[in-house]
Amino acid sequence: MQRDDAFCGNVVDRLASLPGVRAVALGGSRAAGTSRPDSDWDFAVYYRDAFSPGDLRAIGWPGTVSEIGGWGGGVFNGGAWLQVDGRKVDVHYRDLADVEYRLAEARAGRFAIERLMFHLAGIPTYIVVAEMALNQVLSGELERPAYPDALRAAAPPRWWENARATLDYGRDAYAARGMLAETAGTIAVAACQAAHAVLAATGQWVTNEKALLDRAGLRGVDRVLAGLTPDAGRLAQAAGDAQALLRTAVTQAANRGSLASGENRPSAR
């Protein structure tokens, strides 16, 4: 097995040589410096105009290579799960025209939230901008965008409103009927939505949900969920406790963000 640096260099060279590819970046825990020996290797290939997954498939690395749009057709528009020299390698397709459009939208404070497998709150379309800002560019050139002021203003209230509506529905539709699993699910989803609000308010990019609650200081939601029973009163109290916890975190983050930027932004209600 190759040493990590030689392995990474070889993979990048092969990916960069594919037709249409303009840049290759390393993401995930490997880029963040938080990887374990068994961590996956996450690469993104940035292409202009066109990219053929068949060219990636032709390299001969074993695994699954999706078509463009094979992961739902949103900003995560496809990729591959591969085995290379005994290591797990994920390759994500990134259309530069779409990434540049998402960057322009983020700078204007606009974004959508898409469903994506394994993500509780879904993903904001500015996630591909966050990747450009945080990932290590190992071939080619990519813009390294700062967190836009317009996004810091627009994203927190939107995420918080989603969290509040999720909790309200969970309390009224599920907790009132003693439905434990559904109530717990809405609390977990709302916590992730609120975490997005916290991090957006303080200008911190998010690329996945793996450390989302910890980064936002919302690990305390675990205590709200611990020991729940199918008792309507207890479930309603849990929803209320979660809302108080999340509201406090979002309000404090909004205040910190206002102090950092010199603006006066409304706190969460």
Which helices and strands occur, and which strands form pairs?
Elements: H1 4-16, E1 21-27, H2 28-32, E2 41-47, H3 53-57, E3 63-65, E4 79-84, E5 87-95, H4 96-107, E6 113-114, E7 123-124, H5 127-134, E8 136-139, H6 149-174, H7 180-201, H8 212-215, H9 221-225, H10 232-261
Helix pairs in contact: 6-7, 6-10, 7-10
The neighbouring-strand order within the major sheet is 3-4-5-2-1-8
Number of domains: 2
Topology-level CATH name of the largest domain: Beta Polymerase, domain 2
Terminal Cα span? 55 Å
State the helical fraction: 40-55%
**Strand percent estimate:** 5-15%
Question: Structural class, from helix and strand content?
Answer: alpha+beta
Low-confidence stretches: none
Number of strands: 8
Shape: globular
Mean pLDDT: 94
How would a crystallographer describe the biggest sheet?
A: 6 strands, mixed
Which CATH class of the largest domain? Alpha Beta
**CATH architecture field of the largest domain:** 2-Layer Sandwich
Element-level helix/strand string: HEHEHEEEHEEHEHHHHH
* Rounded Rg: 20 Å
Explain this structure:
With 269 residues, the chain is an alpha+beta fold. The chain is built from ten helices and eight strands. Helix content is 48%, strand content 15%. Strand 4 and strand 5 form a beta hairpin. Helix 6 (149-174) packs antiparallel against helix 7 and helix 6 runs antiparallel to helix 10. It starts with a helix and ends in an 8-residue tail after the last helix. The mean pLDDT is 94.
Quick recap of the structure?
The protein is an alpha+beta fold and 269 residues long. The chain has helices at 4-16, 28-32, 53-57, 96-107, 127-134, 149-174, 180-201, 212-215, 221-225, 232-261; strands spanning 21-27, 41-47, 63-65, 79-84, 87-95, 113-114, 123-124, 136-139.
